[in-house]
TrEMBL record, chains A, B:
Binding site for CoA: 266-270, 381, 385, 405
Family: Belongs to the acetyl-CoA hydrolase/transferase family.
Keyword flag tRNA-binding: no
Catalytic residue list: 291
PANTHER family cross-referenced by the UniProt entry: ACETYL-COA HYDROLASE
A Pfam entry, by short name: AcetylCoA_hyd_C
Name listed for the protein in its UniProt record: Acetyl-CoA hydrolase
Organism encoding this protein: Ureibacillus sinduriensis BLB-1 = JCM 15800
Residue stretches making up the Acetyl-CoA hydrolase/transferase N-terminal domain: 16-218
Keyword entries, A-Z: Hydrolase
The keyword Kinase appears for this protein: no
Gene Ontology terms for molecular function: acetate CoA-transferase activity; acetyl-CoA hydrolase activity
SUPFAM superfamilies: NagB/RpiA/CoA transferase-like
Length: 501, 501
């Protein structure tokens, strides 16, 4: 066996557990419930799932897969397309499994990412047969050190009957010390989570496990699938500029200083592009308390704008992977990777008073947000942590281009076709057209701000028409709607591909 | 001046501030923003608002009124109907102001009750010109002791430019000591809220105020408007039985003991009736950590079932008022009244692991809940604390009769016409028909449980038809819907008064 493998397995007797991916995959039975590491394509188990997918080709075998969040192609493409997944939660983002979810072949449970650990504790998710967890190392005191994400690994490792470790040599041992693993006590016996500042370390550098449960260790050497986000464009730069101007107005109002407040930024190209906008701004000494660190955060660290970033996962492009993971020592004192139960915990989010920036698929004239369902029926990715952050932050901002599909669809509609975030939780909407600050406003006060500031010119009149008709129809009720037409824009889009009517 | 008044004003120089309601009301200017005590008709300012309503009859005068939650008739009926309210938040429950909200005469901002204090800190609600606060007493060390509710009084008193006190002699001085006032630090400097058990006292017996800001003290002697809930009926008793059976199954599953977990129970007749059901159950040593204590809680205390209850407000019927407030000493060691920011705080709710029981207007086949908008446009009361509890509890249960308006409307619909709680947050639905436990299920797994267990027989087939058509139409998408018909039941109800089609 390679010396470096032995070195990374700090407990001697565990070296015997090293086996091939096929041998590990052979342990898994049809119908098993499997908790896996991995969060937005980072730190996911890679080689065991591939070996499992091989088995599925010739065997009737389906498992339930719960993770931190979305995974790379090994599970959500290869295993899923082979027919190996019965049920999936709590988040995904791969076109392959998305398609299977939207044709009824895979069951999917979309959930707030901070809720999962609680459901595992209660046994609602479970009993967990296997935890498959990618690790950098096992320390001599029995800590399992994750790689580029922590996600739900601690809770799966704690509750699983068996643990399969994927020891990934592609990650430098310098990752040891970057993580901070803290598992809250059971409800009823629980203490406050002692994070007072984003930089606070409150736990261990690895996951305390019952090493007796380690049934197999598989060695791998695979990089994370790189992030899929696309580069900023003119319009996302306009959105960034609108956002920065809004934050400037908050400073003028005395609500923020130019250090702002800990920032959370959501997944996807738009949220990343908007964050990039801080690079050339006057804001400084920024701190991130987020779920996923995408490219923008590292660019901001390099630019000296961000002094510290707390997350549960690092999901970056290929070039940035080389730079960051090749020199993780340079970033180690500026980063903490935490369990998602902590990165997304309402207690911590509300205490710290975050500024949350998440992307929406569509919003409506009253400020409700659809983050998940295209056309109200087809699952895109999932709600992820957007609800955890949106509900509890000091400022919850949603960004979206005002239109989609080349201008045929308006991203601002009479009524969203699926509700992920209700009017009560959405403070500010930013599109390339402008900003609507909805805080403290009644529904009818929000309408002109949203239509005039955020809607694409092609759809403004059509939205005003809908609204005025609804006011007349309902006798100016609290939330005027015309139930016959509230979803008619989506009907039109489904039938003729356009919301222009 | 009456001796008892002087005795209740612990700071001598403040006795000079005693004046008539008219004199106090005369201080308020057109356009002022006023923060008032009062939460679900309890502990609200009564005589100053009435005097203000008199002024409004002959003067152009409108104010913005923010409270804890709903008030008695003095504000939400008399002042509102006189035209004295421009804007109202964060909750109301009176037919008079409801009507004005639904005809566009009063602006209403519906909000999570735990969010208000934060908005005041940020100045989004504000600047607050006056806090009008009903009190039992002012202590010699400058604490303002509330009466039957605390609500948002501490934060309004802290941020208001001026404070008007309504010293209500109708409340026994024995109320001193029942409250526990704790105001979290500003975000960024905030410490954990140190409640580890519902019984924990963490603050002061009254609101620390800058006594210089007390501009007027008005003496009153008015009881709270009694609660309006109606008695349990056969169907709510069936709902209670279903709920208890569900909890029994949770005990069998090892998730609860027969002491259950701290209970929260929502406002309204249905939630109260369901809680009454615990009286003849085998559960014991129950603890309540809730927002409002309605009649049921006191009946359970008297029956020896509930050992302790934490709340932000006590809203009880006339008979029970006599019994409880006449003998508050007997209950004082079993009750704490807290600020609503604390009773409803996500941090505390998730730490304690509550069982939340709230009432819904309607739910849909995927588990989304409408708590607020009749027919999707007319505001009923507001979301209140239901979101705070539902999102963060160990178990979040919604109760509703399966039908409304004598059976013409189904309370389970294809798509709710307004979303207050999304599918991600709703664990269990209880109607008089039965229980649907939705935890851990994908949307399409929830549908048969909801339709078969919860829907009234009159509407079952119609819902199945909708669902099957939607599955076919969307190619079995993640959340099958027919956007043309999703709200058609509400269209039918608005046009012909019935959802039977
Ligand atoms: C909402 C979300 C999908 C946006 O992602 P994004 O990459 O920034 O957005 P894009 O504008 O590139 O849109 C992604 C896709 O949605 C489509 N889309 C966007 N708006 C749409 C709309 N109003 N109607 C229909 N489709 C729309 C785009 O056309 C694009 O489709 P394609 O992949 O077929 O090209 C993504 O942020 C997400 O999944 N959010 C939910 C989870 C979350 O917020 N997590 C953060 C917590 S930390
Ligand atoms: C939802 C809520 C209105 C139910 O109140 P309730 O008193 O238990 O319920 P009822 O069944 O008596 O219904 C109240 C009214 O709504 C009507 N209603 C109930 N279901 C309806 C439906 N599906 N469609 C239309 N109207 C409906 C009833 O007919 C009744 O109308 P009426 O006053 O004209 O007779 C009430 O619980 C509420 O306001 N909840 C939101 C706030 C909250 O949950 N706070 C708790 C946090 S601690």
């Amino acid at each position: 066996m390679e010396e470096t493998v032995v070195k990374r397995i700090g407990i001697n007797r565990l070296v015997d557990k090293v086996c091939s991916p096929e041998e590990a995959a052979a342990l898994i039975q049809n119908g098993n419930i499997v908790g896996m590491s991995g969060f937005t394509r980072a730190g996911d188990a890679k080689v065991v799932p591939l070996a499992l997918a091989e088995r599925v080709k010739s065997e009737a075998l389906k498992i339930d897969v719960y993770t931190g969040a979305s995974l790379g192609p090994e599970v959500d493409q290869v295993l899923a397309q082979a027919g190996g997944i019965r049920k999936r939660g709590p988040y995904q983002g791969d076109p392959a499994i998305r398609n299977l979810i939207n044709t009824g072949e895979v069951l999917y449970v979309d959930a707030h990412l901070s809720h999962n650990a609680e459901l595992v504790r209660q046994g609602i998710i479970g009993p967990i047969d296997f935890a498959i967890i990618e690790a950098t190392a096992i320390t001599s005191d029995g800590l399992l050190v994750p790689t580029t994400s922590v996600g739900n690994s601690p809770i799966y490792a704690k509750y699983a009957k068996n643990i399969i470790v994927e020891l990934n040599l592609a990650h430098s041992e310098s990752f040891v010390g970057v993580h901070d693993i803290y598992i809250p006590e059971d409800q009823g016996e629980r203490k406050p989570i002692p994070i007072l500042k984003p930089v606070d370390r409150i736990g261990d550098i690895g996951i305390k496990i019952d090493t007796e449960k380690i049934i197999a260790i598989v060695v791998s050497n695979e990089k994370d699938a790189p992030s899929l986000i696309v580069d900023p464009d003119d319009e996302t730069q306009e959105m960034a500029e609108h956002l920065l101007n809004f934050l400037r107005s908050e400073i003028r109002a005395g609500r923020l200083t130019n250090k702002l407040a800990p920032l959370q930024s959501g997944v996807g190209s738009v949220a990343n592009a908007v964050l990039e906008g801080f690079k050339d701004s006057e804001f400084e000494d920024l701190v991130i308390f987020s779920e996923v660190l995408q490219d923008a955060v590292f660019n901001l660290i390099d630019a000296g704008k961000v002094s510290f970033a707390s997350c549960t996962s690092i999901t970056i492009s290929e070039d940035l992977q080389k730079k960051v993971y090749g020199n993780i020592e340079n970033y180690a004192d500026k980063i903490i990777i935490r369990p998602q139960e902590i990165s997304n915990h309402p207690e911590v989010i509300r205490r710290l008073g975050l500024i949350a920036i998440n992307a929406a698929l569509e919003v409506d004239i009253y400020g409700n947000v659809n983050s998940t369902h295209v056309g109200g029926t087809k699952m895109m990715n999932g709600i992820g942590g957007s609800g955890d952050f949106t509900r509890n932050s000091r400022l919850s901002i949603f960004v979206t281009k005002s239109y989609a599909k080349g201008g045929k669809l308006s991203s601002i509609v009479p009524m969203v076709a699926h509700h992920d975030h209700t009017e009560h939780d959405v403070h500010v909407i930013v599109t390339e057209q402008g900003v609507a600050d909805l805080r403290g406003l009644a529904p009818k006060e929000r309408v002109p701000l949203i239509i005039e500031n955020c809607v694409h010119p092609d759809f403004k009149q059509q939205l005003w028409d809908y609204y005025h008709e609804s006011v007349a129809l309902t006798g100016n009720a609290h939330t005027p709607h015309n139930m016959e037409k509230a979803l008619s824009w989506h009907v039109s889009a489904a039938k003729s591909g356009t919301m222009k009517m």
